[in-house]
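Example record

Each entry pairs one chain with its bound ligand, glutamic acid.
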Amino acid sequence: MVRVRLAPSPTGTLHIGTARTAVFNWLYARHEGGQFLLRIEDTDKERSKSEFTSNILDGLSWLGIDWDEVPTIQSERVEEHRSAIQTLLDSGLAYRCYASEEELTSMREVQKAQNQAPRYDNRHRNLTAEQEASFQAEGREAVIRFRIDDDAVIQWRDLVRGPMQWRGADLGGDMVIARRAPADRIGDPLYNLVVVVDDAAMAITHVIRGEDHIANTAKQLLLYQALELAVPVFAHTPLILNAEGRKLSKRDGVTSINDFQSMGYTAEAIANYMTLLGWSVPEGMEERFTLTQAAEVFSFDRVNKAGARFDWDKLNWLNAQVLHGLTPQQLLDDLSPLWRQQGWSLPEDQSWGVALCELLGPSLTLLKDGIDQAQPFFVCPELESDGLKQLELDGARDAIAQLVKSLESDPWTGIETATAQALLADAANKAGVKKGVLMKSLRAALLGRLQGPDLITTWSLLARVGQDLPRLKRCLP
Ligand code: GLU
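Structure tokens for the complex follow.
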């Protein structure tokens, strides 16, 4: 049974990269009929916060990603981590290194001066019992390091990148697996060790994560071997890049799923877009899909190795597709809370809001466009310069006057659109102007300007709430 996991650190809100990793894990698990698990990597006590954990879980749920089993909390497993370190110490595969921070810094300075890549030079790998005793007598604390032989060859078949090979020499020397502590203790266990122990304990079969973890994978494979644990399959997904081809960062204005939420994107569009960031649809499949549809056909064969460029136009297009696919009633359910926040109230008659959504829906890209576009239906807009100019045309205000006259003697309820056309033709005729002039003037009167949605529907909606006459009357000659 395929078991995959997302292992977020709760040190910030749900990051786009984490969300995309979540999507790929989820798609693979669901495609394979397997399980998608969560592990909260909260061992950094200072930076981890429970509100970030809640934010991450809420964000995943919002995207439509569900998980199996109760999330594993990494900090609750520290005894298991320590005992794995003890195993490595006992077998001689790990050792205590007493080198002080100053010694390590000057070691790196020498390397830098010689144009060498910084690495630990394994200086405490083979201390004698006497040397250890004397460091301890000095009161030095020690980190614990795992031995990485320079000539070790590490190979795996990556589901995205194919055959991979690393040399031990490229991993920076023996790696620290526990933080500095008095020599009779094991200090706080560190990332690479902890991940291996936890992934094995959770019986993870496939580790799917960003390509920034490739060097960690090489190190972790050595730990699997040393701890005699079953090795999972690895898949490293491409980085998300900005339009300039650089790693997407804070400077691009979006880092967290919350940013997209507050910009007015729908969960469906974001989940859809996250999938397209690195995965291409099979031939014949549309780029607009639900996660469930994508899960049916998802495979790593179609995940690209190259970085995925963030494309706002495509995201906007997807978001528009999602909004245009909503029924007017669904759109009303989404928009009415936003309208209420503006202090606008809907008339009793539910069908009014539905009709407004039917009118505005096709022109929305973001949900919040539905605030600006609905505003003139709730609040009487000022007359703008193009609207005023239209009303100054010969006969324009007279035609409005004719229309007002007939509406006052026989109000139009806004229901019969054929009546509207007849009313306009009649008023234009009486004022001696073309019907087109009256129509443009009517739009100016109702919306303050010459641009807007379908005129008769606009008028009808305003008539139904008694807002057409007052707006026309302000334009009388
Ligand atoms: N906590 C790590 C991160 O957020 C997990 C990486 C992994 O998947 O192993 O980057």
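The two ends are 79 Å apart (CA to CA).
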